[in-house]
TrEMBL record:
<feature type="transmembrane region" description="Helical">
    <location>
        <begin position="39"/>
        <end position="63"/>
    </location>
</feature>
<protein>
    <recommendedName>
        <fullName>DUF8051 domain-containing protein</fullName>
    </recommendedName>
</protein>
<dbReference type="Pfam" id="PF26225">
    <property type="entry name" value="DUF8051"/>
</dbReference>
<feature type="transmembrane region" description="Helical">
    <location>
        <begin position="69"/>
        <end position="92"/>
    </location>
</feature>
<feature type="transmembrane region" description="Helical">
    <location>
        <begin position="6"/>
        <end position="27"/>
    </location>
</feature>
<keyword id="KW-1133">Transmembrane helix</keyword>
<keyword id="KW-0472">Membrane</keyword>
<keyword id="KW-0812">Transmembrane</keyword>
<feature type="domain" description="DUF8051">
    <location>
        <begin position="6"/>
        <end position="122"/>
    </location>
</feature>
<dbReference type="InterPro" id="IPR058364">
    <property type="entry name" value="DUF8051"/>
</dbReference>
<feature type="transmembrane region" description="Helical">
    <location>
        <begin position="104"/>
        <end position="127"/>
    </location>
</feature>
Length: 129
């Protein structure tokens, strides 16, 4: 069971790494978000930072097989999914710059990874019960 928890921790780490690659101004994300108002811009950034930090905590909790690790990771996976889906759907954040093809591809991959993460840790939870 410990090997499966290590694999789950690595999948969470992969998800947070894929999110970090998409930082605005980075190698993939080149859209202009200057029209977002301060509270919305900083609120969204704070949410993404907390999602990243919580993901690292979940990695550790999975490694030590903490009793709430699976539930926390399921929540994180759902939040990743929501972040990517609302962006792919053009709901939020809105930018006058169109999403590039590499960014679209990365977000589709990241959405798939969020679904995989949820299914994987849910299966672990059922096997461990």
């Amino acid at each position: 069971m410990q090997n499966i928890m290590i694999m789950a921790s690595l999948v969470v780490f992969l998800n947070v790494t894929l999110l970090a690659i998409l930082v605005p101004g980075g190698p993939i994300e080149n859209r202009d978000f200057s029209k977002l108002k301060g509270v919305v811009f900083w609120g969204f950034n704070l949410f993404l930072i907390l999602l990243g930090i919580t993901s690292f905590i979940a990695c550790y909790l999975l490694l030590i097989s903490h009793s709430h690790a699976i539930f926390i990771t399921q929540i994180i996976a759902v939040l990743y999914f929501i972040v990517y889906i609302i962006d792919l759907a053009g709901i939020f954040p809105k930018s006058p710059t169109k999403m590039s093809k590499p960014l679209t591809l990365f977000e589709i991959i990241n959405t798939s990874m969020a679904v995989f993460l949820f299914l994987f840790v849910t299966a672990i939870g059922h096997v461990g019960s």
